[in-house]
Specification:
- The chain is of the alpha+beta class.
- It has three domains: 75 residues, no CATH class; 77 residues, no CATH class; 86 residues, no CATH class.
- It is 42% helix and 19% strand.
- The strands form three sheets. The protein has a five-stranded antiparallel beta sheet with strand order 8-10-9-11-12. Strands 4, 5, 6 and 7 form a four-stranded antiparallel beta sheet that branches. A three-stranded antiparallel beta sheet has the order 1-2-3.
- A hairpin with a 4-residue loop joins β5 and β6.
- The chain starts with a helix and ends with a strand.
C-alpha cells in the first residue's frame, strides 16, 4: 500500500484535505484481514474436528456443517446441534499448537457430547438433575433455531425482547431442557425458573451488582462459565428502590454493568453492546431497576 501512495499522482490539495482518511483506511484493512484470519482458522479447526469425529466416533453422523455449529444424528436416531463457539474459544485460549493439542481438546469435547446424549436418553429427576439446572438468555433468532429441533422450555424476559431458556449443566457440555422434561422433573416453568436462579446464585457473588452502584466506572463480568449474560437475571434482586444500573450483554459470555449515563446519552453503551466475543445476544443496553428491565439506545 505504501508503494501505491508514493507513486500515485494526487493533487496536493486533496491530500491536504483527506490525510486523516489514510489511518482509517489502514485500520479498516487490518480489521478485515483479522476477521478473515479468524474465519480461516475456525474453518480449519472445524474441518479437523469433523475428520476426528469420522475417524473416532462413526456412531455420530454429521448431517450438515455450519460456521459455528454442526448438525448431528446418533446411531439411535437422536438429532441435535453441536455448538462450536466454546471449542474455538478454548483452542484460542490454550494456544493449541500441534495436532495432538487439538485432538486432546476434541476428545474432551466429544466426551461431554456423548455424556449429554446418554443423559438425554434417560428420564430426568430433581434428585439427580436439580442442582445442575441453570438459565440462559437467548434472542429470537437463537430461540427459533432451538425450537426447530425440539420444543424448548422457555419464557420471555419482560422489557428485553429476550427469552429465558434452561439447561442441564455438566463439566464439558450443556443440554437444553425440552418441555417434555418438565413432566419428568415434576416442575412447571415458574418453578424451573426459580430452581435455576437458586443454582445461578451459588455460582455468583451476592453483591456483584451493588458494588457498581456509586462508582464511575464500568464493571465487566467474564467468568468464563458460559453464564455471564444470564447473571443479568440476578441484578434486580441486588438493587433497592431508587437504584438504577445500565447493563450490556452483547453475547452469552459478557455482562457489563455501569451507572446510567448522567447526561442521558446512551450512545456509548449502545456502541459497546455491539462489540461481541461470540454470537450476538442483544445489541442495545438495558436500564435495570429493582422492578426489571428497559431497553435503551
Amino acid at each position: 500500500m505504501e508503494h501505491s501512495f508514493t507513486d500515485c499522482a494526487v493533487p496536493g490539495v486533496i491530500l491536504a484535505m483527506a490525510w486523516w482518511k489514510w489511518p482509517l483506511l489502514a485500520l479498516g484493512g487490518l480489521v478485515v484481514l483479522a476477521v478473515l484470519a479468524v474465519k480461516y482458522h475456525r474453518r480449519a479447526v472445524r474441518k479437523h474436528l469433523i475428520r476426528y469425529m469420522r475417524e473416532n466416533h462413526p456412531e455420530i453422523e454429521i448431517v450438515s456443517e455450519h460456521s459455528n455449529h454442526l448438525m448431528i444424528r446418533t446411531s439411535s436416531g437422536a438429532a441435535g446441534q453441536m455448538n462450536l463457539h466454546n471449542l474455538f474459544s478454548q483452542i484460542a485460549e490454550t494456544k493449541a499448537k500441534t495436532p495432538e493439542d487439538e485432538r486432546a481438546i476434541f476428545k474432551t469435547m466429544i466426551a461431554g457430547l456423548i455424556e449429554n446424549l446418554e443423559r438425554a436418553a434417560r428420564p430426568m429427576s430433581v434428585e439427580s438433575d436439580g442442582d445442575f439446572l441453570l438459565p440462559r438468555l437467548v434472542n429470537g433468532g437463537t430461540l427459533a433455531q432451538l425450537m426447530a429441533n425440539a420444543k424448548i422450555a422457555n419464557q420471555p424476559l419482560a422489557g428485553t425482547g429476550l427469552s429465558v431458556v434452561y439447561v442441564r449443566d455438566s463439566d464439558n457440555a450443556v443440554s437444553y431442557l425440552a418441555e417434555s422434561a418438565l413432566e419428568e422433573l415434576r416442575l412447571d416453568v415458574p418453578a424451573l425458573h426459580e430452581r435455576a436462579l437458586v443454582n445461578l446464585r451459588k455460582k455468583s457473588s451476592a453483591t456483584f451488582a451493588r458494588e457498581v452502584l456509586g462508582s464511575k466506572s464500568l464493571a465487566l463480568l467474564k467468568l468464563g462459565d458460559t453464564f455471564d449474560a444470564a447473571r443479568l437475571l440476578l441484578v434486580p434482586e441486588q438493587l433497592q428502590d431508587g437504584d438504577v444500573l445500565a447493563a450490556v450483554i452483547p453475547d452469552r459470555d459478557t455482562l457489563a454493568l455501569a451507572p446510567p449515563p448522567a447526561d442521558g446519552d446512551w450512545s456509548g453503551l449502545t456502541k459497546l453492546s455491539r462489540v461481541t466475543s461470540g454470537p450476538a445476544l442483544l445489541n442495545r443496553p438495558l436500564r435495570v431497576t429493582r422492578n426489571g428491565f428497559e431497553l435503551m439506545g
